[in-house]
Amino acid sequence: MAEKPVCMSTQTPSDEDIQREDNIRCLSMLGHFGFECLPHQLVNRSVQQGFSFNILCVGETGLGKSTLMDTLFNTNLKEKKSSHFHSNVELKIQTYELKENNVQLKLTVVNTVGYGDQMNKEASYQPIIGYLDAQFEAYFQEELKIKRSFVDYHDSRIHVCLYFISPTGHSLKALDLLTLKNIDNKVNIIPLIAKADTISKNDIQTFKYKIMNELISNGIQIYQFPTDDKTTAQVNSAMNEHLPFAVVGCMEEVKVGKRMVRGRQYPWGVLQVENENHCDFIKLRDMLLCTNTENLKEQTHTQHYERYRRFKLQKIGFTDVGPDNQPVSFQEIYETKRQEFYDQCQREEEELKHKFMQRVQEKEITFKDAEKELQDKFEHLKRIQQEEMIKLEEERRQLEEEIIIFYKMKAGCEILQSQCLANVKKDKDRKK
Ligand SMILES: Nc1nc2c(ncn2[C@@H]2O[C@H](COP(=O)(O)OP(=O)(O)OP(=O)(O)O)[C@@H](O)[C@H]2O)c(=O)[nH]1
Ligand SMILES: [Mg+2]
Question: Which Pfam families does the record associate with it (predicted)?
Answer without folding.
Answer: Septin (PF00735)
